[in-house]
# Entry
Amino acid sequence: QQQVRQSPQSLTVWEGETAILNCSYEDSTFNYFPWYQQFPGEGPALLISISSVSDKKEDGRFTIFFNKREKKLSLHITDSQPGDSATYFCAALGDTDKVVFGTGTRLQVSP
Amino acid sequence: GGIITQTPKFLIGQEGQKLTLKCQQNFNHDTMYWYRQDSGKGLRLIYYSITENDLQKGDLSEGYDASREKKSSFSLTVTSAQKNEMAVFLCASSIYWGRNQDTQYFGPGTRLLVL
# Structure
């Protein structure tokens, strides 16, 4: 049973558009949500993260919106660039350091 | 800064073979992890180690063994490779266990193909 779900599985946007990646979870004890970015042939790398006490976290063109009541998050990438083409994983942690990963969204940004 | 090195980069094995994957980190991190990445299934935790000589099973530990003999290295053994198995094995490390907001740093992965 997948505890962290991501949609869509793949997404294509044009350069300059805003890409919206969605994530939902089931376990109400999850309190920390990192997003990882993975390029082909590389391991994932932390992109941005949010704690459950916040409803928004911004870092440049990347913004996480968090809705605790609905157990949903979304990652918005504004002014998308071809270099943003990668797979994005939403992840969740509770009171342990065990990370539960979603299945990922593959983003393609077309020039 | 630091780096995580995984060897080999590619591993081709035969059905039933015992295969060992190695991971080294120079962050001086206490905690290390092994994940398996399958297409469309995200990352699943196989084993983790809170400190040197410690081993903890993850959700996918059956069919694997692990060894943490030094703080800087963490090995994973596939005890009996399954025919047509194809996956990427990712090693990661973090500073301590017990602070869930510590970043996990990942290596580039070992790509396994079993013929």
In short: The longest strand of chain B covers residues 86-94. The radius of gyration of chain B is 13 Å. Chain B has a mean pLDDT of 93.
